[in-house]
Amino acid sequence: MSDVTVRVRDNGPLLIEGPIKIVDADGNVYHVSPDKPAVALCRCGASANRPFCDGAHKGCGFDAVDRAPQV
């Protein structure tokens, strides 16, 4: 099984590294180029290209600095 890493970017998108498949609620698959090393998914809701990030978080006031709890 291939490794996939999801990085939570401060005030930005979720960055997914590794081979993934993105499927919408109806079961339709979004095209993701296998040549791309990473895909950025929108967290702010302002992207015109959802579910993908288009950088809109920089101008919409999105503010999120999330950290994993220390266990």
Automatic annotation (TrEMBL):
GO cellular component, one term: cytoplasm
Coiled-coil residues: none
Gene Ontology molecular function terms on file: 2 iron, 2 sulfur cluster binding; metal ion binding
Regions that span the bilayer: none
Start and end residues of each Iron-binding zinc finger CDGSH type domain: 17-63
Gene3D superfamilies per UniProt: CDGSH iron-sulfur domain, mitoNEET-type
Keywords: 2Fe-2S, Iron, Iron-sulfur, Metal-binding
Keyword Transcription regulation: no
Pfam families xref list: zf-CDGSH (PF09360)
Protein name: Iron-binding zinc finger CDGSH type
